[in-house]
């Protein structure tokens, strides 16, 4: 089954998405997500100039060989741009294989290990009161796990909440230049424990809670936070410290039993290896889109399982529904699945471009048994929403120093 053509679409159906479609001489096609938020067109160019010409005429069934060819064959292995490109090709090839076999991708991975996928919802607010009222709604909606983010007084606009779009922790498709947000570690560390104390005092310990630090602390600050939060029994603290120097997590581990999640920015299993084999983290958050596709994510899951590390894939709104559905298949299969990040099923314009069927019931997602990944991409609808340049924000300390956003 030969690859005859590969098309790349960029559309802004609410926010920018890069979609790859692989066509074959048997009339079967597959789709993949190549979205790299804020750097979308770099991936398009990488695909069009450097990947697609090499794949025309290749056998679409040779998923592993094509992956190795694109990874090792480039000589310049890994990096966010190239791994997003490889990830989309790989996902599209799994989609094709599933369609040819007449099976959902989770069956090709080894079948279901559970009835459905437990997700964590986003609960945000501009004040603790607002977070608690949104938490009450999330509990009433049946969620078993939620992530709490609250505006830190004096650092308005920072990650996790936004004044004008309270249900979205990130603005969409309308930042032609990066906005700048203030950050104060002192204000943050003084505030966050109170949020979790109030949540536990009000709702008890029946609901599982997480929090995303978004890489803004040093290891010892993160250790301090983890220790302070211990009485509130978090499921995990995410991205406590930026991942480049994994030994930072050793410092955290030496001081606190609060579980750690990391990995939404990992591009390969190598980014995770040291952290996992030293058991510095508890959940690995790598996405199909940024981690090079389904092929390496299956390897990552199996490797992580040797060290009691569970999968908690990234599920932010900048990952397209193709990535979301690819995660559903991995999550259903992975014996060491932990929890899936979930931001809802999206807006009408998003669903017009990406059509998929999934049902949320009591905090768990059920998918239909469609062959392949289970997403239909509407090319005509995509053309209606042209690309708009849009950046992620940047953070600065109160004295103007650039910080991790
Ligand atoms: C998350 C992530 C996102 C990222 C976003 C960047 O936990 O969902 O941290 O919110 O900021 O994916 O593009
Ligand atoms: Mg995160």
What portion of residues is helical?
Answer: 25-40%
Mean pLDDT score: 95
Q: Find the count of extended strands (DSSP E, 2+ residues).
A: 18
Specify the CATH architecture of the largest domain. Alpha-Beta Barrel
CATH T-level fold name of the largest domain: TIM Barrel
CATH class of the largest domain: Alpha Beta
Going by helix content, strand content and strand pairing, the class is alpha/beta
Assign an overall shape: globular
Bound molecules: D-gluconic acid, magnesium ion
Beta content comes to: 15-25%
Number of domains: 2
Model regions low in confidence, pLDDT < 50 over at least 5 residues: 165-169
Number of helices: 13
Q: State the end-to-end CA separation.
A: 45 Å
CATH superfamily of the largest domain: Enolase-like C-terminal domain
Largest sheet: 10 strands, mixed
Radius of gyration: 21 Å
Domain Mandelate racemase/muconate lactonizing enzyme C-terminal: 128-259
Protein name: D-galactonate dehydratase family protein
InterPro entries: D-mannonate_dehydratase-like, DgoD-like, Enolase-like_C_sf, Enolase-like_N, Enolase_C-like, Mandel_Rmase/mucon_lact_enz_CS, Mandelate_racemase_C, Mandelate_racemase_N_dom
Pfam families: MR_MLE_C (PF13378), MR_MLE_N (PF02746)
Describe this structure in words.
The protein is an alpha/beta fold. It has two domains: 3-103, Enolase-like, domain 1, CATH 3.30.390.10; 108-370, Alpha-Beta Barrel (TIM Barrel). It is 37% helix and 20% strand. It contains 13 helices and 18 strands. It has helices at residues 40-55, 63-71, 80-101, 105-109, 128-140, 185-203, 219-229, 248-255, 269-277, 294-305, 321-333, 348-353, 379-383, and strands spanning 3-12, 16-24, 29-33, 117-125, 145-150, 180-183, 208-212, 236-238, 260-262, 283-284, 310-311, 340-341, 354-356, 358-361, 364-367, 375-377, 394-397, 402-403. The strands form four sheets. Strands 4, 5, 7, 8, 9, 10, 11, 12, 14 and 15 form a ten-stranded mixed sheet that branches. A three-stranded antiparallel sheet has the order 1-2-3. Strands 6-17-18 form a three-stranded mixed sheet. A hairpin with a 4-residue loop joins β2 and β3 (29-33). α2 packs antiparallel against α3 and α7 runs parallel beside α8. The N and C termini lie far apart (45 Å). The model is unreliable at 165-169 (pLDDT under 50). The structure holds D-gluconic acid (GCO) and magnesium ion.
């Amino acid at each position: 089954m030969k690859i005859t053509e590969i098309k790349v679409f960029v559309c802004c159906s609410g926010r920018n998405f890069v979609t790859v479609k692989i066509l074959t001489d048997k009339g079967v096609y597959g789709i993949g997500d190549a979205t790299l938020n804020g750097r979308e067109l770099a991936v398009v160019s990488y695909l069009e100039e450097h990947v697609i010409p090499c794949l025309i005429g290749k056998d679409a069934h040779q998923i592993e060989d094509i992956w190795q060819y694109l990874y090792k064959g480039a000589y310049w292995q890994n990096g966010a741009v190239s791994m997003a490109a490889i990830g989309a090709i790989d996902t599209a090839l799994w989609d094709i294989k599933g369609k040819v076999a007449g099976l959902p991708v989770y069956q090709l991975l080894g079948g279901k290990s559970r009835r459905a996928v437990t997700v964590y919802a986003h609960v945000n607010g501009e004040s603790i009161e607002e977070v608690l009222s949104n938490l009450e709604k999330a509990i009433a909606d049946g969620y078993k796990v939620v992530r709490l983010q609250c505006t830190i007084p004096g650092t308005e606009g920072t990650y996790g909440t936004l004044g004008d779009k309270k249900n979205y922790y990130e603005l969409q498709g309308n930042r032609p230049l990066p906005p700048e947000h203030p950050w104060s570690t002192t204000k943050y560390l003084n505030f966050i424990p109170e949020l979790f104390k109030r949540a536990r005092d009000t709702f008890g310990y029946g609901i599982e809670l997480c929090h995303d630090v978004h890489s803004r602390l040093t290891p010892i600050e993160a250790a301090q936070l983890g220790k302070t939060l211990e009485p509130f029994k978090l499921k995990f603290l995410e991205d406590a410290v930026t991942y480049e120097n994994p030994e930072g997590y050793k410092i955290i581990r030496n001081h606190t039993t609060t579980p750690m999640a990391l990995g939404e920015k990992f591009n390969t299993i190598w980014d995770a290896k040291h952290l996992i084999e030293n058991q510095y983290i508890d959940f690995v958050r790598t996405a199909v889109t940024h981690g090079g596709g389904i092929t390496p994510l299956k390897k990552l899951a199996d490797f992580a399982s040797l060290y009691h590390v569970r999968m908690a894939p990234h599920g932010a709104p900048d990952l397209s529904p193709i990535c979301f559905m690819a995660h559903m298949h991995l999550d259903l299969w992975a014996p060491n699945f932990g929890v899936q990040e979930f931001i809802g099923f999206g807006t009408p314009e998003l669903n017009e471009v990406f059509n998929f069927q999934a049902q949320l019931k009591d905090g768990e997602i059920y998918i239909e048994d469609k062959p392949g990944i289970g997403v239909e991409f509407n090319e005509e609808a995509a053309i209606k929403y042209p690309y708009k340049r849009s950046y992620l924000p940047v953070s600065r300390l109160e004295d103007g120093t650039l910080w991790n956003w």
